[in-house]
Amino acid sequence: MATPQAVTLDQVLDLAELLPPEQRVTLADILKKRSLELSRAELIESVLEARQQQANGELEPMSVAELIQKLKQ
After folding, report:
1. What DSSP string runs through the chain?
2. pLDDT-derived band of residue 68, with 50, 70 and 90 as boundaries?
3. Residue range 25-54, pLDDT digits in tens
């Protein structure tokens, strides 16, 4: 397998423009789905980590207002 080379966004967009319109739509759908899958995987990992911290007693209870304030920092 060849070693992947760095590719710029402009290069990808130029290549995508060479595709037929229906394949561009398919490409956009695939990229969106992969992005959503990655976001879900990151969220699941974060929730599992928080649950583990809670089980270990590493998290302190706080009110919703305190949580919102902390998230704004």
Report:
1. -PPP----HHHHHHHHHTS-HHHHHHHHHHHHHHHHHHHHHHHHHHHHHHHHHHHTT------HHHHHHHHH-
2. very high
3. 999 999 999 999 999 999 999 999 999 999
